[in-house]
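pasting for ref. prot 1 ->
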Amino acid sequence: MVNNNVSKNFHHANHFKNQTKSKKTIYMSLILTLGFALLELIGGIISNSLSLIGDSFHMLSDVLALGASAVAIYFSTKKPNNNFTFGYLRLEIITAFVNGLVLIAISIYIVIEGIIRIFHPREIDLKSMFGIALVGLIFNITITLILHNSLKDEHNLNVQSAIWHFIGDLINSIGVIISSIIIYYTGYVIVDVIMSIIISFVLFKGGYKITKTAFLILMERSSIDVDLVRKKLMNIEYIDNIHEFHIWHTNDEETNAAMHILLNNYDSSNNYQIINEVNKILKDEYKIDHTFVSIENVSINNHN
């Protein structure tokens, strides 16, 4: 007969997410961003403002980022199958990594274009520049708040990367407004270029942060001190050695641990209790609730 108390503690990782709110938020943001990106691009061309054109390209990259995020979120809600036994959660990390690289590429492009315009300045239509930037500021604040609000219920690295895109847009809109005011009173067109370069550094920082986080997850780097965990587990009675010990992250939420445990006293009745103790320490102290534990014995498994 199965012990009901034991069965209640028995668990597995789902390897998929409930992302209903994130999905709706991303889809709505995608449609709104596409419309405004086209408006800003046309406005930037008409006003001849590098800040507006750079921001419109950034927003078009937001459209691509949001589109990729929408695909990733869709797949992250799908359950594992025989071919993808860990599900599709890693896809959102891959998407976040690409989004981060796009941010970095855009920031570099804006700097290069800015340097070119220092030597070849162009006239700017201040009214169009200021008006579109003001609308852009309101738009970006709205989208940023919508995305940020969705994170309160559902954590998602893709949404975080999207927020960085819109924070960049928001700062850029502020920069364009400030630039247009300064240019209006001073006539220094170069202010537009300087502001766009400053903004590009902000974009680069955000892109680097997202790319680095995603890259480390893809490389299965552990954010937990493995040696410290091993020492803690070695205090469990009968454990003589722990090897093939790995801790890695499926995404920015799910952490896994796998290990071979060598026992120094052959008593198979202790095996399940030892595994339970290992799992309890990993879950309670390190928030690791998905484990793979293989029991080995000195008298049976040869470990020179």
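and prot 2 ->
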Amino acid sequence: MTTVPSTITLPDTLSSWPWPRQVNPHYEEISFESAQWVKSFGLFSPNAQVAFDRCNFGLLAALAYPLLKKEHLRSAADFMAALYCFDEYTDQGDEAFVRQAADAAKDALRNPFKSRPEGEMPIGEVFRQFLARTVPICSESVQQRLVETQERAMDGQVQQCVDRKHDFARNSKDYLAVRLHSSSMLPSYVIMELDIDVPDEVYYHPLLENLRYWGFMLICIDNDIFSYNIERARGQALHNWVTLTALERNVGIQEAVDYLGALHHRTKESFLEATKNLPSWGEPIDSEVRRYIDGIGNWVRANYEWSFESRRYFDTHAAEVRRTLQLTMLPKVVVADSQAHWAPRPGEVIPGLETALNLVPDADYMAVKVAA
């Protein structure tokens, strides 16, 4: 049994990251259009729709892709929203339901101009419309990479569901093998290529493969630390690197967070050192590679900024948490509607939960099977 402290101290991971915050100038217009597009599918209950709106995925797209043209940014915003829709839509489903949703979405990506079967769950149509809008503004190679990497992402989501349903905790190595895909970071990198041309022989160079992976590691560490509080409160923290580190190393939650903070620092050094020793392929390829690497570096910054600027993880306390790096642990609650992050039942708010800064959680922690 692991005791969870009442507060944890977050690592200051990006204070020296050389990529500054940037936001796409088309943010407000595209964010509104994309949000209205999602609403048109009627995927969410009223409470869940509020949760979606507070996440502000249009802002994430604008931060992650600050240089994209207007039509490209629309595809990026739709993709960020579609990923959330799939994640939340399948969050409470069993393995069969998640597989069905994944199969529908994968088929839609393979056939973006084919009407979806009558009666099919709407997630297929979400991904179909996204790709149908994107195909005319991307190259064939980008379309292929996008489809292939997102198919693997959905397979990772199915595996995550299987692990969750069996209360199965992976070791860190196996977790990262799943998370690399289930996070959808690889297809999110592909979105950068809507206006960047990196030839295949360069795209698959070991250096760029390493930079993609290290960027994923940096984002994963920040994301798992930031999301741990809510995921634990919802009883869904087994697929989180903080939990797995605590179990694997037999340490407390704060020690696990500190360990991941140190790993973030080492990974950051590896990333920055590699950017200083780039091979040359000649122009204009070298300039495109530099833009691509800047895009990965910017994604790391974008994820961090969005985590505090949206209300997905810290709700109304984001500014205070960012200033102090002190995060109060939420009490464990049973959430019937997976998108109602702060309520034990849809529409019921725990008194003081939105504003209290000194909540003390329960002391128990879930017993789990840990992979060898």
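The chain is about 60% helix and 5% strand.
Confidence is low (pLDDT under 50) at residues 334-372.
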